[in-house]
Structures are given as C-alpha cells and as structure tokens.
Design brief:
The protein is of the alpha+beta class. The protein has three helices and seven strands; from the N terminus they run E-H-H-E-E-E-E-E-E-H.
Length: 157
C-alpha cells in the first residue's frame, strides 16, 4: 500500500489581453466557447462531459488521450461575478484531477478579470494539494500557462 502524502503548492498567472473583460468571462461561461480552448487533446476522445456554469454548478470533463492516458476534471463553481460597467469580474472554483483513475490533486482557483483600458488584466491564483506521491514538479503551473495562452489566442481572435 502506498503511503498517504500531500504536497502543497500555489502559483499566480497574469496576462493582459486586448479583449474586453466580458469577452474573457464568456470564454468560461459559454460551453461552445470553452470547448474551443479548454481540455481538448488532439487525437483524444471525450468520454464524459457535463457543463453547469453557475454558483454551485458542476463541470466534468473526462477522456482518454491518444497515448492511452485517462484524465478526469471534476469542478464545482464557488463564486461567479460577471464583469459589469467597468467593474472587475471573478470566477472561483475548486476541482479534483484524476489520472488513470487515481485522484492526483485537489485545487482551489480564483480568476480575476480586471478592466485594463479596452482590454483585460487576467489574474489566476491557484492553490493545489498533490496527493499520494504525485509529484507535480511545476507541471500544473506549466500546463495552466499553456492553457491560458490558448485562452488568450481565442479571446483576441
């Protein structure tokens, strides 16, 4: 039996995009928009998908990558405030990640969407607990940075 362990880490990612805060918010709030930048792996297969973007709502994305690896993202939205009339918006959520059926992490994240001229200053702060020998070694931050690059390309298109 593997020893039960937890390793803790946090990171913050900041971006400035030439897109209004509401455009960035909609990239999270609209399922069709989110499908264009989030969680799709070339050659992969989606096995389960559920999208309920509201406070208390659940989002699930589970699939198998081309290399056979299975991943599952289970998210609950804790706080959602749409940006309005020059005011910042935010999205706060907690999520669990599974890799090949094993729970590897539990995380809490806060996204802030701050007006910046005609664009958006985007700030994502995440705290994660990496479980039972899963050594993140910065891969979550690296992967989230790559995902935010995809989001930036989408919202600025």
């Amino acid at each position: 039996m593997k020893p039960r362990t937890a390793v803790h880490a946090s990171f913050t990612i900041t971006r400035t995009w030439k897109a209004a805060p509401m455009r960035v918010f909609q990239a999270f709030a609209d399922q069709d928009a989110k499908r264009q930048w989030f969680g799709r792996v070339p050659g992969g297969e989606i096995q389960e998908e559920h999208f309920d973007f509201r406070e208390g709502g659940l989002e699930v994305l589970a699939g198998r990558h081309a290399n056979g690896m299975a991943t599952r993202f289970d998210c609950i939205y804790r706080d959602i405030v749409a940006p309005d009339a020059g005011e910042a918006g935010r999205i706060v959520y907690s999520y669990v990640m599974h890799l090949d059926g094993a729970k590897i992490s539990v995380s809490h994240a806060c996204i802030e969407l701050k007006p910046d001229g005609a664009g958006t200053k985007f700030v994502l702060t995440e705290y994660g607990d990496y479980l039972d020998g899963y050594d993140d070694a910065g891969s979550r931050e690296h992967g989230t940075n790559a995902l935010m690059d995809r989001l930036g390309t989408f919202v600025e298109a």
